[in-house]
Amino acid sequence: MLSFYLVPLLLTLVIEITVATLFCREKKFLLLVVVANILTNPLANFLVKTFPIIWYYPLGVPLLEVAIVLVEFGFYSAFYRKRYAFLFLFSLCSNACSYLTGVFLQMLGLL
Prior knowledge:
The protein has 111 residues and is mostly helical.
């Protein structure tokens, strides 16, 4: 059960921290990325496990990902005011990378 939450979180952290270092190398920003993902990733996995319809509804996972992008963007915006375009672009890119990596690993049968 723990691996259901831990593996996706660790994978997401590796990917999103990698993307974050391409956008900004400030330690504060990297720490925010870690905290944001510790808050959103287990919750997203809990929702998927609790409500399997998310997987079966064609827009379920994409809508969940949009919600995550917006929540993380709001979280980053609370700490970095006036950099909204940068923060939204980062949130969108980092979550797209982690989502697409997960899809790719599932296609290979590794997740």
